Amino acid sequence: MFSDLEGKVIIITGAGSGIGKSFAENFGKAKAKVVLNYRSNRHLDEIEAVKQIIHDAGGQAIAVQADIAVEEEVQQLVQAAVNEFGTLDIMINNAGFEKPIPSHKMSVEEWQKVIDINLTGAFIGSREAVNQFLKEDKKGIIINTSSVHDTIPWPNYVNYAASKGGLKLMMETMSMEYAQHGIRINNISPGAIVTEHTKEKFSDPDTRAETLEMIPAKEIGEAQDVANVALFLASDLAKYIHGTTIYVDGGMTNYPAFMGGKG
Ligand code: BGC
């Protein structure tokens, strides 16, 4: 279905776990050449497993360690893709971090850590990808993993909501700058998705019930639901889509508190 993705060179940040791992497997199955970025060695086994899945599916993969919040490391990541595969076609800024802390107790360090990873990291990744695309005169593609919290406020996660809200306008602004070069920049905003990061909270019956209250579709999503959209956005089927956010959230962004028809 996405045959145009075959042979495309794609960087996926945070590819060792969660939604990033699902992106990697899916692009591998589409026979892309995948650069799997990870930060911590604790993801090495998963990265090796993903690499194997990609090879078995007929794709190619290399793993590159880099902290996406560090400018030089992101530059080296893009360079590693170009050195290995000769070009860059698609950049997925996916790595992210969240941890609940009430706003009045949040230190500047805790605030900054999330902004650095979720927002500044995606900016550096986008900037480096755009530079590579311009250098090659290529109609490259950038996809950022955002969140429903780029629009829904999230108590106890002020740094996260601010980072994702910023990511939305960052994407829209950069898309406006580079659409004329054929560079397509878009966001995917997942809602409640089961991954190894969220498995525990969604298996708690109270949290699960509370979360389902906020989802018109009455189900928690799967990483594959998000990965399907990434394949679409990266393919030629989406060739006229610039500067858009696609919510993959079972309707969470549609004010589900109004479902009863009152108010
Ligand atoms: C977060 C999840 C959360 C979901 C809905 C996502 O951005 O990563 O932990 O369940 O938003 O609130």
UniProtKB/TrEMBL annotation:
What molecular functions are annotated in GO for this chain?
Answer: glucose 1-dehydrogenase [NAD(P)+] activity
Pfam families this protein is in? Answer: adh_short_C2 (PF13561)
Origin: domain of life = Bacteria
Entry-linked InterPro entries: NAD(P)-bd_dom_sf, Sc_DH/Rdtase_CS, SDR, SDR_fam
Report keywords, A-Z.
Oxidoreductase
Read off the PROSITE patterns from this record: ADH_SHORT
- Its transmembrane ranges are none
Function comment? Catalyzes the NADPH-dependent reduction of beta-ketoacyl-ACP substrates to beta-hydroxyacyl-ACP products, the first reductive step in the elongation cycle of fatty acid biosynthesis.
The UniProt similarity line reads: Belongs to the short-chain dehydrogenases/reductases (SDR) family.
Q: What is this protein called?
A: 3-oxoacyl-[acyl-carrier-protein] reductase FabG
